[in-house]
Amino acid sequence: MQKIRSGTLAALLLGSISTPSSLLAAPSSVETIRVTALADTVAMDFTEGLTTEVGPRPAGTPQEARARDWAVAKLKSLGFSNVRVEPYTMPVWLRGRDEARVISPFPQNLVLAALGNSASTPEKGIDGEVVYFPTLADLEAAPEASLKGKIVFVSHAMHATQDGSSYGTFGATRRQGPSIASKKGAIAILIRSIGTDNHRQPHTGVQMWADGVKPIPAAALSVPDAEQLARMVARGQPVRLHLTLTSKMLKDQPSGNVVAEIPGGDPKAGVVVAACHLDSWDQGTGAIDDGAGCGIVAAAALQAAKGGPLRRTILILMAGAEEVGGNGGRAYYDAHGREPHAMAMESDFGADRVWRVDFKLPQNHDALARRIIAGLAPLGIGASRLPAGGGSDIEPLVKAGVPVVDLQQDGTRYFDIHHTPDDTLDKIDPAQLQQNVAAWAVALFEIANAPESLGVN
Amino acid sequence: MQKIRSGTLAALLLGSISTPSSLLAAPSSVETIRVTALADTVAMDFTEGLTTEVGPRPAGTPQEARARDWAVAKLKSLGFSNVRVEPYTMPVWLRGRDEARVISPFPQNLVLAALGNSASTPEKGIDGEVVYFPTLADLEAAPEASLKGKIVFVSHAMHATQDGSSYGTFGATRRQGPSIASKKGAIAILIRSIGTDNHRQPHTGVQMWADGVKPIPAAALSVPDAEQLARMVARGQPVRLHLTLTSKMLKDQPSGNVVAEIPGGDPKAGVVVAACHLDSWDQGTGAIDDGAGCGIVAAAALQAAKGGPLRRTILILMAGAEEVGGNGGRAYYDAHGREPHAMAMESDFGADRVWRVDFKLPQNHDALARRIIAGLAPLGIGASRLPAGGGSDIEPLVKAGVPVVDLQQDGTRYFDIHHTPDDTLDKIDPAQLQQNVAAWAVALFEIANAPESLGVN
């Protein structure tokens, strides 16, 4: 990750230099865009439509194809140009039955959901004794081959964070736990959901098997079920489970990105990519992840363009197959990575308010950052000195050096809902969604019209 | 329901008479009981044990039988006397598969749970077009036979209330809706869950078919799913569903009450019944409904007895089969209704704090009410002038004229969880549970030791 540029912007953030008033007073057109965007209805309409009329849209499935058709029609009706699907193919993991039952000593069912790429049990399920690890580190410390024939159960102590950083730390249990358990001989692994709620809604999510590791059945218990199982284990008697996690893998299934544009007047200035993802996990309707993100970027591009013709093209990338490995983002980069890109941005962290802006800009672009900061301040958004990093849909662009601005959303309640059946429209607060649109509209307006030279290629 | 006695108590509540200070200063033994009970650990231990080691315990099932065995052992270990099971038999409805899928125009699954006594669909399910009614009154207004071949969907606008009164009003959709829909020719009925949350956790519950009505498949959609279906209907195209609700009815299954006592010194003074129910719905572990109630009454009886021998016997009634129609309460009354009962009380409204006390006492027992009010006031509990009504486990006793005191619990979040998979231990706040124990201990102490003559028979 590129180092944050030092100099005047950092000093400005620290308040150690005086700021010309012209930089803090947003131009009236930005103010108009911001105020107008705060009354936006497109983002909610988009999110309501996608989640109601398509609903769940797992990567590489017919539902995702319906989402592409839906989005193409919607974006055309909203007036976007060059609306198209850019197809690719991919392997697809499909959930089957997810069932768990404590056989002894306290017979009862547990609620869980298989993780992406889980191996399937036989139809009749498997039995095994539970071996409990309070943390991933405890699992890592177990001797090699010590878990032969066992069902591993790993917990953790994730709590909510505004910046979502606890997902990075505790999500390792989902990302790495299955491969570690398999290497040590386990016949299956259950993890406490990577979530911060206390509802019986398991948090699924993808995990990739490490090279050479044999896939085993892998699932997340809902948080209350994980606590229940931990209480049983704590009583000291052997706990035996019956586990049925049927799933299947399909090769070469169709997926694709939906791309739409608001053309700018200066093609050589590079496009501004505003990304989200169209696919969702299979159990919810993908409202906060990431229907809202697609609603935000589409609405904000339209709001930004209300100020008149833009210098740069805003390109809406509604990526496919983000949840299972970022296939859509890679396909976009493979097709377009060598074209001029001025900036890449992504909205994929729910629908709660933007609270902070992070930058990764070329050297000597502090003036642009200052204009964006000034435009966002009336929305209650502060600036950080942390480098922007983008998200998985724009990761290949970011790695190639395209500048990034991150409009960081409040993640305090994001992991209550993330990847669960509970990811539904009712979780979206319309006023916070509108604040997102306003923040994005301001940023896109400033970036698309920036007189500075930006980007790569 | 007996009219509330007027006179001095009512005047006291209105503050219109002066109160002898001796009545407001609780005796030191009550204060000791209250303070000690606020540190109670028995109620949480009981609730944790029952919900973990037995888990779900539907009426008339082997799991309920395990709950009786568990409770007998626990109550004996706590030092109760005359601990026994009083068996009876009953018909049992058993849930099968609960599945719903929108066939058109927006194919996707919906989350729902069959209601108690629902008819079963064939294994392969049924198809039908949805007819939507925003309220039960709208369904009632539909012409006879107008719903032939249709799947009825009824919504409502229930919101949380502290006293739970919205359940009475809006619960009619669950209690009466299925019979009304069947009479008008519907092939199935779906209702919006009688709940105040927005999670994908359907609220089940019992409903009884009216005389002569043909049972049809009947289920509750989770609140987000009900809102999703309403949005689909609002788009104006016919909405078709595929519905699979398999269930079965069994005759003459064993159930029973668990009864335990703390013997008092004066058998002729009548027993004080402290009731709860041991059964739960099948999807959760019955923590707030009603494991906590059983923990509260057991713990409180022990706390009340810490003050020394009691005049009256406290009888703990852990009723079976409350959820499906109050079978346990009736069986208790059939066996014991003619024995002397001084008072009946019940804890069956979750584990949140007691906020109000209601009375239904014989005439001229204001002094007892005043002692109870004084003992509860330091716990933040106010007195009402509403008549106490008890709950279904003591309903036959109350109808027979046994006096009642209701320690009303805060129901603001009760119907977020009630009858859902989410009814699990983590929903219980230990401090509020302890406040319940303290309130109950104070009331039981005052009632069991009251020098007044109380009760019937």
From TrEMBL, chains A, B:
Gene Ontology cellular component annotations, sorted alphabetically: extracellular region; lysosome
Gene3D superfamilies with a match to the protein in the record: 3.50.30.30, Zn peptidases
Compartmental location: Endoplasmic reticulum; Golgi apparatus; Lysosome; Secreted
Domain Peptidase M28: 257-441
InterPro entries hit by this protein: CPQ, Peptidase_M28
Biological processes per GO annotation: proteolysis
Residues making up the signal peptide according to the UniProt record: 1-25
Main location: endoplasmic reticulum
UniProt KW Cytoplasm keyword: no
Keyword Methyltransferase appears in the UniProt entry: no
Keywords, in A-Z order: Carboxypeptidase, Endoplasmic reticulum, Glycoprotein, Golgi apparatus, Hydrolase, Lysosome, Metal-binding, Metalloprotease, Protease, Secreted, Signal, Zinc, Zymogen
Domain of life of the organism encoding this protein: Bacteria
Any GO MF annotation of the entry: metallodipeptidase activity
Pfam family for this entry, one: Peptidase_M28
The protein's assembly and partners: Homodimer. The monomeric form is inactive while the homodimer is active.
The protein's name: Carboxypeptidase Q
